[in-house]
Amino acid sequence: MDPMTLRMEMGAELERILSFWMEHAVDETHGGFHGELDNQNQIVPGADRSAILNARILWTFAAAHRITGCEAYRHMADRAFAYLSQHFVDRQHGGVFWSVHPDGSVANDRKQLYAIAFAVYGCSEYYGATQTPEALQLAQALYRSIEQHGFDAKRGGYYEAFARDWGALQDLRLSDKDENAPKTMNTHLHILEAYANLLRYWKDAGLEQQLRHLIEISLEKIVQDDFHFGLFFDEDWNPTHRNVSFGHDIEGSWLLWEAAEVLGDAALAKRVKTVALQMAEVTLEQGIAPGGGVMEELHIGHGVKDTSFHWWPQAEGIVGFYNAYQLTGDARYFEMATRLWCFARDHLRDLEHGEWFWHVDAAGNALRDACKLGFWKCPYHNGRACMEILHRIPNSI
User: Fold this and answer.
1) What are 40-53's pLDDT values in tens digits?
2) Minimal CA–CA distance to 388: which of 237, 245, 251, 206?
3) Which are the contacts of 391, defined by CB distance < 8 A and separation ≥ 6?
4) Burial class (CB in 10 A: 0-12, 13-18, 19+), 12
5) Of 149, 8, 49, the residue nearest 58 (C-alpha)
6) Whole-angstrom Cα distance, residue 214 to residue 229?
7) Which residues contact 202 (CB under 8 A, 6 or more apart)?
8) How many C-beta neighbours within 10 Å does residue 370 have?
9) In angstroms, rounded to a whole number, what is the distance separating the alpha carbons of residues 145 and 113?
10) Residue 67 burial (CB count, 10 A)
11) What pLDDT, in 10s, does the model give residues 193-212?
12) Cα 114 to Cα 239: distance, rounded to the nearest angstrom
C-alpha cells in the first residue's frame, strides 16, 4: 500500500467512525452521551458515565472540527464541553469526578489524575478548535489542580488518585486489572499528552517546566533498560510489576516524541528520539503476532498473557510505526503501519453495527462479549489514528 492509499482509506474511516458516534452516542433524554452501548448498539440502562469517555469524545470531535471545519463535529464538541463543565467539574474542590449517573448526579467522586488529564486534553483541544475562552480557563484550572495536589516535588512525578477533597485513598487503581500503586506509567503518559497539547495554546513557563519534567521522568524512570515501559511503581520509582504492554510502548514512543517537539528543546528531543525509536523497534521485534497485529500484554518470564487483539493497540501502532518511519525513513516501519491498518480494517471494523469491535481472537474473529461504547471504549484511539495519518501524509503527495 502506498502512502496516498493509506491516507485515503483512513480519511474515509474517520468519517465512518465519527458518524457512528453522532448517530448512537448522543442521549437526547438526559443530555450528554450514553454511558454504555452493547455490541449491537443497544443502550445499557442505568450505566454510569465516565469522565474519561466524555473528555475523549470532546477531544476527538474538537480535533476533527479543527482539521475539517465540519460544523456537525463542532456541535458534538460543544455538547461534550457543556456536559463536562456542568456535570463532571467539581466546583468546590477542583478537578473532575470519576463518573456520574445518567441524570448527571455524581456517582463516584474520586479524583483520578488520569481522568483530570484527559479533561485538560479535551478542553485544550476544544479551545484550539473554537477559541472559546472558557475552555482554556477550565484547562488551566484543571492543570493547576493536578500540580497543586498531585505533583511529588520530592521524588518526582505524580501520584495516582485522591478522595474528592484530595485526601488519601486506599484503593488507587484505574480499573480492576491494575495494580494498586501510587505511581503508574499510564497516568504519567496521559498527563504528558495533556500538558503537551495545552502548551500548544498556552505558552506558560510553569507548564513548560512540568512538561520537561514529565519527559525526563519518562526517560529516566518509566522506560526500563529493555526499552519497555514499566507499568507500576512505588513512591520512590521502584518498579512493582514487570508485565509489558505493547500497546502502551508503541503509543508512548510517538507521544514522547510529540511532547519533545512541542517543547522545542533540541537536546532533549535528541534523547527522546533515540529512546522512541528503540521502543518502536522492540515492539516490532517482540510485540507483533505472526499473522496479526499488536499483541495485548506479556508477562515477563511467562510468555504472552492475552492472545486477543484489542482495538486500541492497533490504532496506536499505526501512528507509532508511521512516526518511526518519518524519523528514520526505514521502510519496515511504514510496512508495519500499513499492515496494522489492514488488520484493523479487515478484522476490527464492525461492518454491520459500525465502529470497531473491542477485540478479536488470535485468528482475527470478532469477540462480541464487550461493549461498543462504554467507560473506556471511545473514539479517541482509532479516530486519532486516522487524524494523525491525515496530518502526517500531505494530500499533495
Assistant:
1) 999 999 999 999 99
2) 251
3) 67
4) exposed
5) 49
6) 14
7) 124, 136, 139, 140
8) 16
9) 9
10) 14
11) 999 999 999 999 999 999 99
12) 19
